[in-house]
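Troubleshooting log. The previous structure file for this entry was overwritten by mistake, so regenerating from the original sequence record. Sequence copied from the archived sheet and checked twice against the printout by T.R.
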Amino acid sequence: MGKLNHHTTQPDSLHLAHHWRSVAVGLLALLASACTTVTIDEHRTSSQRAEIGAEQSVVVLGRRHSSDYETEPNLVDCVGNVLQSGSDGLNVIAERAFLDALYPWFEPRTAPMHVRDLDRYLKHPEIAAAMNDYQVRYIIWIDGNTEKTDSAGSIGCSISVGGAGCFGFGTWENQSDYEASVWDYEKLETQGQISADASGTSYMPAVVIPIPIIARVQNSACKGMGEQLKQFFSSQPQPQQ
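Regenerated output below.
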């Protein structure tokens, strides 16, 4: 009687599963390395925190007078959202609403460049009235932008009878540089500056399908600057009625 031999073979689907598992592990390793480095610097004109009443507000505005770049509106909105979040959040006026209410005085060509310019602006009754209606105590000007500084690698895509696919590997680096100046509207003086520098490398591996692994450089700069600005202020309790 002949001996019956059993041979176990792995189906192609199992080999494919092992292949994609290896790819997934590699992507996870890349994801862990797609990080961002953030540096925050602060300069205060006083050792004390800037005081702000519970009923008072701050407005965050972006500088857009440069011919080379403009501070991104989404960065300005992001910093404002950080400032007003949490139990210690501040009253923040939306940039667009503020600019519309005081048009055209805070447009790029007419916006004050120095805190001392506010004294001249307040001679216009409509400006003074709008500022009082908003109960503005501080104006925070943000100047800077995020840009791509370097890139490497390549990805090629092709279509054949068997299907379509992309293969390759690409990287790029982004750099964020922002500075926030805090103006005291009540005292007409600068309270200080906070700068945020962030950098990070993003990856785009392509094994059939390109998968971007993004370093959120601008978002990291926003959160770092926003949280530091929060520490800049000392909220005062709501007055008793």
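Confidence is low (pLDDT under 50) at residues 1-20, 237-241. Archived copy saved in two places this time.
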